[in-house]
Input
Amino acid sequence: MKLTVRRAAAADLPTLLQIFDNARAFMRTHGNPHQWPDSYPGAERLTAEIERGVCYVVMGEGAIQAVFCLIPGDEPTYRIMEDGAWPEDLPYATIHRMASAGQVRGIGRFCIDWCLRQGLPVRADTHADNVYMQRALEKSGFVRCGRIYTEDGSPRWAYYHKAATQKASPAGEGFLIFIYLYRPNTDPKLLNQFEMFCTWVCRLLTVSIRAGSSVRTLFRASTSTFFSCAVISGRSCIMLSSWA
Output
């Protein structure tokens, strides 16, 4: 079966709620009765994540075969960890609320591998009783880092994928530098395209770089007629300058 991934739409909500109902029932009959309480995650939470564009569905043979969230940015429950630590403090995305329709074997691994190809280090957590999710994460190269606690205070094993981080230059020295001069009235779309190009080149050369959104925030917040800014991560650097 050919599988594809797309963002979830509002019209998908009834199907997603049914998939989560089935997933909770499966958990209860397979040694994991406590991870998801009744009605979790609920229509309100799912609707909000669909509207944010962070909820995805896996399509196969014209039907939704799985659902998951990939949420970039800081996860508040990951700030404190017991019995371990995150190996790196870099921008990341988090996998949440993965559930299968139960028709495709290995679809959890498919979802995880898709998330790893989206350009950010990936974190995840799961219940100690959820051996299926633990196995899928570990087969995809995740390492267990310690224990975190969810919003309701229940513990979860925390995982991190080190290989998702782009590696620095093997030579171990020097910077990759992009310098771009632009006028203040330059079309923002052109600036965005340049940032995307820089990111693509850095990934091609296996050099780490922080998200371009950080650069945009810096230069759009400036009030000077001439300035430059740089975002450095590992051994790469982007410099953007403007003149009046």
Summary: The mean pLDDT is 77. The first helix runs from residue 13 to 29. Strands lie at 4-7, 55-60, 63-72, 93-100, 122-126, 143-149, 155-161, 176-182, 227-233, 236-242. Residues 176-242 form one domain.
